[in-house]
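Figure 2 data, in text form.
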Amino acid sequence: MKKVLVINANPKPTSLCKSLAEQYISVAKEQHKVEQINIGDLNFEISLDEGYDKITDLEPDLVDFQKKVQWAEHVVIVSPVWWGTIPAKFKGAIDRAFLPGFSFKYVGGKTIPEKLLKGRTSELIVTLDSPPFWYKYVTGNAIYKQLKHSILGFSGIKNISSTYFGPVINSNSDTRQAWLNKVAKLANRIK
């Protein structure tokens, strides 16, 4: 039994991402302990006006966000592609919560920080309005690079899979049901 955190990175109250996250949760909780974060439900100041020079106290929702990430053994991020990458509110949560001392630590004399979230795995489920092959191979797959390398990998979380659904904009109910079925299969794969 694994501790699984499912993050719905779409801030909208209703969305395909939310449906996919709920489908994943409903299947995963049959065999695992599951927690959920809906980015749209979190209340916090997005801007990191001082960068990491002056750490602003975390709001209760971001403290909870950190606790759930630390608790988790497997983190599932369900995110739409907005302007090529993750939504601003999700990026704001990362900026504010993945702080030095939480997700990484600078070590004197070394250029590469210590990764403080090692031992965890992640899985990305991405929705987009363009065809996945176009996004991945023509436009450069920025969401994957940002999440896998610059955020998760930098913190020590090893991404084990990425699944893309699109184009959403002209999908029909049969296509969306097929996507929900695929997410159920992904949730059944957790070991």
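Caption note: The domain at 3-188 is CATH 3.40.50.360 (Rossmann fold).
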